[in-house]
Structures are given as C-alpha cells and as structure tokens.
Write a structure and sequence with these properties.
282 residues, mainly alpha, globular
C-alpha cells in the first residue's frame, strides 16, 4: 500500500517510482526485459559472424549493425511489455483513483512512473550492451578503445531514447484505453506498423525512383518514425551499410541533426502525455 505524508515534490516522485519498481518486480517483467537484452547483446556479439561461416568475434561496425538491426524490433517491444498497463491497469484495479486522493499531482505520478520504467530499461540496455563493448575491447580485433566506447556510447544513448519514446507511447495508449487487453492489442498493432509496415512503404518509395520529390519524402518519413531514426543514427555513426536507409548518404545529414530529432520525440510525447493525463477524468 502506498503511504504519502507531506514530502517535497522530488520525494513524492521517488515514492511513485519506488512503487512502480516493486510492481514490476512482482510481475516479473523486469526479469523478462533483462533476459531479452542480455540474450540479444551476447548472441549478436558471439554469433554475429556465424552467417559468414566463422565464429570469431566480428568487427565493431558489424556488431553495431547487428545490434541496431535487432534492437529496433526488441527495444519497442520490451518497452511495451513493461509499461502497457501503467494507467489502464491501475484504473481497472481502482488504485489510480485511490492514488489521486493523496496530495500528489498527476504530473508527479507521470514523472514517477516514467522514472521507474526508464530505470529498468536503461539499466538493462546499459549493462547488456556495455558487456558487449567490454568483450570487444578485451577479445576483439584490436579496434581502439576510444572508438569502441564512442560507438557503444551512442548506441546505448539512442537505445535509451528509443525505449523512452515507446514507454511514453504506451502511456498514451494506456490512458486512452478502457481495458488492458485493448491497450496491448493497440500497442502491438502500432509496433507492427512502425517497425515493419512503415519500412515496407519506405522501401516502396526508395525503389519507385520518383526523382527529387521521392528523395525528399523518404528523408522526411525517416524523421517521422523513431525506429528508422534510431537505425539511421547508429548505422551512419558506425559507417555500416545503410541498407534501405542508403538514401541518407545522398543528403549527408549530420549526426547532431539526427540526434536532435531523436531527442525531440520524447519531449513532445511527454508534453502530450501530461496533457492527456491532466484532462482525463478518472
């Protein structure tokens, strides 16, 4: 049971975050998320070169490309699993109404939940991908430590941003849904559309060869999809093959511009989520 006395604003946020962390541990979602990221990181590091017929540790650019390609599917899904019932679950159980009777604002509840879910995902991402970086530094092909740390630092930072984006998207859907089953279904449909269907449409534009208009539209669509933005940031920085995002090379977009667009996503979603939560009648 949540007990709140008169506390400073930051103290109230920590109380909410602590409650969310305990709920996640009780529901085993934390263990699931950690297992997903550790299996992903270690498998891509040790078995990433298996497709070429060898089991040697791959190069840095190959590891980053492999982790990016798989992470763009796994990170949003893990964020959805962790936070899909952040509001609708408590609303069904009646605990959200009870929580709002305490002297705590909706903004503090939102920030507390976000802090807890981000702590779980950030710790899982940093520990698992950090282990891959350590393996490459100790047993890799002799790349400079600074190069490895820079590449993995960017991968970890962008992965945390992508996780935050989908946590906030899950909050929005959770606030708009009347029951958990509907929230899960809506989020899985959105995940499928952004990660798979969106890329198919992007590929269709890439091969359509419609001239300047098509090129401009593809670059704009990449900015409007956080998963493609995440992929572009890491593949461009690692110098890996861009695949379906190869059109970026024609425009030579700077990495700071791509990172700025990636940072703008969670800020806009946080503002939107707060607005929806404040106007929501519970």
């Amino acid at each position: 049971m949540l007990t709140i006395a008169k506390r400073p604003s930051l103290g109230l946020i920590w109380v909410i975050a602590n409650k969310e962390l305990k709920d996640s541990l009780r529901n085993r979602w934390v263990l699931v998320v950690f297992a997903i990221f550790w299996v992903l990181a270690l498998s891509m590091t040790f078995a990433g070169s298996a497709v070429s017929g060898t089991l040697a540790l791959p190069s840095l650019s190959s590891v980053i490309a492999s982790l990016t390609t798989v992470s763009v599917f796994i990170i949003p899904l893990a964020a959805i699993l962790l936070s899909h019932d952040a509001f609708v679950g408590e609303e069904e159980a009646g605990t959200l109404c009870l929580l709002l009777t305490y002297p705590v604002s909706k903004s503090q509840i939102l920030v507390g939940k976000l802090l807890a879910h981000c702590t779980v995902t950030f710790t899982a991402i940093t520990s698992s991908y950090g282990s891959s970086a350590a393996i490459l530094m100790l047993f890799g092909r002799g790349e400079a430590w600074e190069e490895i740390l820079s590449a993995f630092g960017l991968l970890i930072a962008s992965s945390c941003l992508l996780a935050t984006i989908f946590i906030l998207i899950s909050y929005l859907v959770s606030l708009k849904s009347a029951e958990k089953a509907r929230a899960v279904g809506s989020l899985l449909g959105l995940w499928f559309a952004l990660v798979l269907i969106y890329d198919l449409l992007l590929l269709a534009l890439l091969v359509a060869d419609l001239g300047y208009g098509s090129q401009w539209l593809v670059n704009l669509l990449i900015l409007l999809n956080p998963t493609d933005l995440y992929r572009a940031i890491n593949l461009v920085s690692a110098g890996a093959p861009l695949g379906s995002l190869g059109l970026l090379a024609q425009y030579e977009w700077s990495l700071p511009l791509l990172l700025g667009a990636c940072v703008a996503w969670p800020l806009l979603l946080l503002f939107w989520t707060r607005r929806v939560f404040i106007t929501k009648l519970v």
